[in-house]
Amino acid sequence: MNVTMNHIHIDGSLVKEDDRVKYYQTPDRPLKFDANKWCYKKMPDLLTFKNDMFQQGEAHKAQGSTHLNFDFPQDIKPSIDMLQYLRAEGFSLGCVELYMIEAAQLRQLTQQPIQFERVTEENVEDYFTVYTPLSIEYGEAYIEECHRYMKDILSDVSHPIHYYIAYETNKPIGIINVIQSEHFVEIDGFAVLTEYRQKGIGSRIQAAVGEIAGEKPIILVADAEDTAKDMYVKQGYTYMGFQYSALKE
User: Fold this and answer.
1) Long-range contacts, stretch 12-17, CB < 8 angstroms, 24+ apart
2) Where is the N-acetyltransferase domain (predicted)?
């Protein structure tokens, strides 16, 4: 089955959609960049983008968001003029790559099991033991916003995101988000504490996700500049495409 960036879950509220843009705006989480952004279906010209910047800025300001965030269409690189303008305006340019692997391949990564538990109200603080030091660069207010949101959704059995914690000798050392859809299982928010990296923990966590996925393929996006994508390729993931984005804080 062909997979595109449209299959990647966006943890935000789609408030409007037209033939040009999907508009995500999530007033209860104004600090979460990815929950408040515009996703282009068509590459805008520079004049259109300048107007979009103004329109998004006004909408974000009204709900307490202090950023601008745009995703460009899959497999299209912005023009040189657009890239130069974005840099001049202080945007951070990003590029992510989409990967897919069969669940059976993940299960074969390692035969060494790991203690792997879904996050509940009882162990949610273990999740933040890993999450907080790896996300503190975004600020304490952002961490608090994430904390409130997770506690709110843990009792929602219909929520598509399931949060998991990996333990080593009962110490939380890794986290991952597993997102179930009709045809795919997506992994996101995958992180291991710094002192436990390069020890095979990541492979053990992914093998556990392979068990959860059953027969569904697993998909993920990785930063094009991150060395983690090289690990995914070595593990057997297949490259499926790229996407540029522009973020201004």
Assistant:
1) 12/36, 12/37
2) 114-249
CATH no. for residue 59?
3.40.630.30
Domain, as residue range, for 152? 103-216
Identify the domain boundary among 55, 81, 98: 98
**CA 13 – CA 28 distance, rounded (Å):** 10
Residue 72: both structure tokens together: 């460009």
**Token digits of residue 83:** 């890239």
For residues 21 and 16, give the distance between their C-alpha atoms in angstroms, rounded to a whole number: 8
Nearest Cα neighbor of 191 from 179, 199, 183, 201 is 201
Count CA within 13 A, CB hemisphere, residue 138.
Answer: 18
> Do residues 123 and 67 both lie within one domain?
no
- Tell me the chain's radius of gyration from C-alpha atoms: 19
CB 142 within 8 A of CB 150: no
Q: What pairing do the DSSP bridges indicate for beta strands 68-71 and 37-40?
A: parallel
Residues 159 and 118 reside in one and the same domain: yes
How many H helices and E strands in the chain?
7, 11
Note down pLDDT in tens along the chain; length 249 residues.
689 999 999 999 999 999 999 999 999 999 999 999 999 999 999 999 999 999 999 999 999 999 999 999 999 999 999 999 999 999 999 999 999 999 999 999 999 999 999 999 999 999 999 999 988 988 999 999 999 888 888 888 888 899 999 999 999 999 999 999 989 999 999 999 999 988 999 999 999 999 999 999 999 999 988 777 888 888 999 999 999 999 999
